[in-house]
Fold:
Amino acid sequence: MTRFEAAARTLRAVARASGLDRVEEERAVTVFRTLVDSWADAPLSAPPPWSGLGADASGCDMSLVLDGARKEVRVTVEAQGHPPSPRAYWDAAMRLSEVLEARYGADLSRLRALADIFQAPDPDAVGVLWHGAVFRDGKAPWFKVYFHLMALGRQNARATAYAALERLGLEGSWDAVESRLHGTDELLFLSFDLVPADIGRVKLYIRHADVTPATLALAAQTPGSDNSGGVRAFVEVLAGSDNPVIHRGALTSLQLKRGSKMPVHASTHIRLYPHCASSDAVLFARIQRALHRLEVPAGPYEKAVTALATRGLEEEGIHGWASVQWTQQRPSVTVYLSPRLYFPQYGPIALDPVRMWPSPVAPQHLHERQPACASP
Structure:
């Protein structure tokens, strides 16, 4: 079996659970095949190349948007070059971007504006550039990118972020962003849609060092919007405690807009495995409770996880992350699910790796590097 064949099984299960029809499902799988072309035909039996995307270095994940209205599925993918290295991955990601431009009309103007900042990544960087795709009922797919802000060195993440925001005309937001960084909080990703700048979103992701539900709730506040009570309750349910301390397992995403010095929107992301629990059964029950409290229908999520848990929910590693945000006072939850390409054989090898490039399970005679940048 190839990596693509195994990963596509998860995508199909999530698409069906979301309510996408067969035509849309096939379209999503076709687009996904394009996204993973750089590694699609690799045999699943071979050791995985390095990837910080997925606890087991799967190199992709799938997510399900839950709000009671939309039928929406998303995928995130890391293009990979050979032999594996940050520069080879950057080159592969740029080739993929050009394919998306030619085949689907993706707008690369902002990506090209930032390319020279990121094109020479640190040889020990965890990642450089990921791609995402969104599949929504009745709409053509659209794409986004995620720049790793530590790609030029962990210590340079803030300077890298500022340089990128300046290129995008968003330097006016910097003071507000920087004021939200506390202690050893880090800037992790810069993301934007591959659409014209006047209609595309730009998001900056902060990874919090040590946070509680209360501090995450404060981090998600934006002018004119305060859903801190909902954020706090959501995190408490997922963590299984009223006052847990989450270490490097929580993100706040800030949406930035030209002409606004303050973030215009925020979302909260929690790493489910293993920060909240190791058992998928425990996480399944907690997400059900969290959705019930938000009055968000859980049916699509339940169908997806049931389809993926082929050996029962006592497995580990199906759940990746969960996020929550509010739009016009309406909550929306996204649950990120892993295809677990390498989990059965290697476990969570990407969570705290002793080596990265070229593979977290590389033979001992290969040159090994200690991680210099922080894995997401």
About this structure: Confidence is low (pLDDT under 50) at residues 365-374. Residues 214 and 258 are 29 Å apart (CA to CA). The longest strand covers residues 246-256. The chain is about 35% helix and 20% strand.
